[in-house]
Every structure is written in structure tokens, then in C-alpha cells.
Amino acid sequence: MRDGTSEYYPGIKVSAQKYAQVHAIWEKRWEMLHSDMHATGYVLDPEYQSPNNEQHSNVEVMRRFHNIIEKLLPDVEDQVKAIEKLAKYRNSEGEFDRLFVKASAKKLLGWKWWVEFGSECPELQSVAQKVLSQISCTFVCERNWSTYDFIHNKKRNRLRPDRANDLVEVFSNLRLISKVNNIKYEEQMVAWDNEEEELEEE
User: Is the dihedral of CA 101, 105, 108, 111 positive or negative?
Assistant: First the structure.
């Protein structure tokens, strides 16, 4: 910031205090989006593998990746094997060097790609499947909060947290079972709409 003017938006004056507040919010969001899981996903996602990719030279990314390796592979020997296989994966050696394997990285989901082509690196394959199969959006949380609001409302506000959590789990599972057992059910995946809840509330 120069002379009370924002460095990124010339002509817009921002006080130092306001700038510090915005910067603190930005740093907090940056930290949230740069976790061990994000870094590991970046390292193991086959779509990001290329000769020009310099993931290994990024200290923060590799440190966070090593944290996940330690968490998911308690045995030191397995950790060493996973790191050894990482070099093989990064350099496209063995099965990873096939053209259709590289082309599949653009078509398949990351965890499915590792299921199909990661058999030469079982330790690294297990880590990749666990990390890349994680849902990276808030849709699941919002759905869970919606169900929680339906159960813990103004009329039922004395429920203990553990009791409310149990009721949310039972309620969600019963809805899934009722949809799957429906004679007209043909979908491969269960739809998560809130239409029924809205009708019940009305």
C-alpha cells in the first residue's frame, strides 16, 4: 500500500487498519486451503504430473505430503517404500510410462486411476486412494446441517449433542433405506434432495 492507496486496486483508498483486517481474513482462508490433505492430493493427482511440474522443490507441499505419509503409514518401512515409489511415479517409470496410462489421467478420477494403475506401488496406492477419494466440497456438511436443523429445532431444543447426533445418523440412514427399497428406484446413486423435508415442515 502506498500513500493510503491499495496496491492492487489503484485509486481506491484503504486505511491501514482495514487493510490489516482484510489481509488477516485472506491469510486465514489461505491456511484453510493449504492443508496436509490438499498438498498430498496435489502431489498424487495424476492430472498434475508432468516433466515441468516442480512439486518436489516446494518445501511446504512436500512437508505436508510427508505428514500424511506418517499418519496413514505407521510402519517406517512402509513409509520408506512409499517415498521410493513416489520417485518412480514422478519419473513415469514402469507402468506409469505407458501412453494410455498417461492419457487416462485426464479421463479418470484420481482415486480410480490409482486403483487401475497403481498396483506396482501398493503403499503409495493406498495413500492415494484414501486422499483422492475425499469429498472436497461443503455439500455433505450443508446436507448434514439441514438434517440437524430439522431434528434440533425450537420445539426440540433440549437434546444433548450426542443424542442429536445419533438421531441425525438414524434419520439419514432411514431416508436412504426407504429410497433404495422403493419399487420404482432405478438410480445408481441415491439422490439427496430436500423436497420431502420442505413438505414435512409445511
Answer: positive
First-last CA distance in the chain: 53
CA neighbor of 51 nearest in space, from 94, 82, 83, 97: 97
User: Rounded to an integer, what distance in angstroms lies between the CA atom of residue 175 and that of residue 135?
Assistant: 21
With 0-12 / 13-18 / 19 or more C-beta atoms within 10 angstroms meaning exposed / middle / buried, residue 62 is: middle
Question: How many C-beta neighbours within 10 Å does residue 36 have?
Answer: 17
The total number of residues written for the chain in this structure = 202
Q: Which residues contact 47 (CB under 8 A, 6 or more apart)?
A: 105, 106, 110
Q: What is the pLDDT of residues 73-129, one digit of tens each?
A: 989 999 999 998 888 888 888 888 888 988 888 888 888 999 999 888 888 988 999
pTM (2 d.p.)? 0.56
